[in-house]
Amino acid sequence: MKPLQYCSPKLRCNHQTTQMD
What is the pLDDT of residue 10? Predict the structure, then answer.
């Protein structure tokens, strides 16, 4: 699981959690 407030180029920036939509 990625840390909170983690921005990935493939994923949108989410302040809560980064999940693959």
Answer: 63
**N-terminal to C-terminal alpha carbon distance within the chain:** 15
Contacts 24+ apart (CB under 8 A), 5-11: none
Residue with tokens 């990935």: 8
Contact 10/1 with Cβ under 8 angstroms?
Answer: no
Q: For 1-21, what is each residue's pLDDT tens digit?
A: 555 555 666 666 555 555 554
Interior angle at CA 12, CA 16 and CA 18, nearest 5: 35
